[in-house]
């Protein structure tokens, strides 16, 4: 195999939710392959800590940019800071996400907006504003972090499943719009992994066991098990893949 396919030298990436469980793993994977990376999230402290650690570890430029993906002016400001410090962004990973677990009848409109605005509208805003530069430069990668719950339903996650399914359709449409420009748009659909977002499931012995029983591989994934998948999608290795979904779910959706 030609490992050059997976090199990211000279590429600049922006990762939303960049200091979270997946965000740090994605940043490490891309920076270890040669990319400079901007991490965006609401809380400055974990961002600065992740940026300092990853930059010491990989020797690449890693910057933390505080910003809320649901706020258009903050999205534009974050993109301006990234462009000023790193140059134009070649790889966008729309990874910021939240979950609210309640039946539909108990879901409030605020719950709905909180989940949809973060996962779906945030991805729309970053994609809208970063695509033009990628098109002009003739190369780009947009990757939405969907979920196995973009493919299948699960009770008590009405907005989360709707947002993750919508990301797949959004990727397909944008992929078609930019198909002749050198820019690809795809989704990564992870199954259950051990990160902060799943603490409510993992910390409850009943729901934890119920999940384990449904995962064919019999365990939650370690975020590091997504490093190869994100590097594939972000690099030239995936050049003939667009409008598609890479599912890494321990077999959940095989059932
Ligand atoms: N873990 C899993 O099993 C799993 C499976 C499938 C899909 N996913 C998806 O993977 C993505 C990453 O999740 P994770 O597992 O890494 O969870 P996580 O550790 O909770 O990370 C989520 C990140 O999103 C950021 N974020 C939340 N709202 C934001 C906002 N409005 N603006 C900017 N950043 C925001 C958070 O940082 P701040 O709070 O500082 O803003 C946090 O760093 C999510 O989209 C999730 O739905 C996770």
User: So how many helices?
Assistant: 8
The poorly predicted ranges are: none
Number of separate structural domains:
1
The total count of strands amounts to 7
Strand-and-helix sequence, N→C? EHEHEHEHEHEHHHE
What do we call the CATH homologous superfamily?
A: NAD(P)-binding Rossmann-like Domain
Task: Work out the radius of gyration.
Answer: 17 Å
The profile of the biggest β sheet is: 7 strands, parallel
Percent in helix? 40-55%
- Global shape: globular
Main sheet: strand order: 3-2-1-4-5-6-7
Labels describing this entry:
binds NADP nicotinamide-adenine-dinucleotide phosphate; 7-stranded parallel sheet; 255 residues; 44% helix; 15% strand; Rossmann fold; alpha/beta
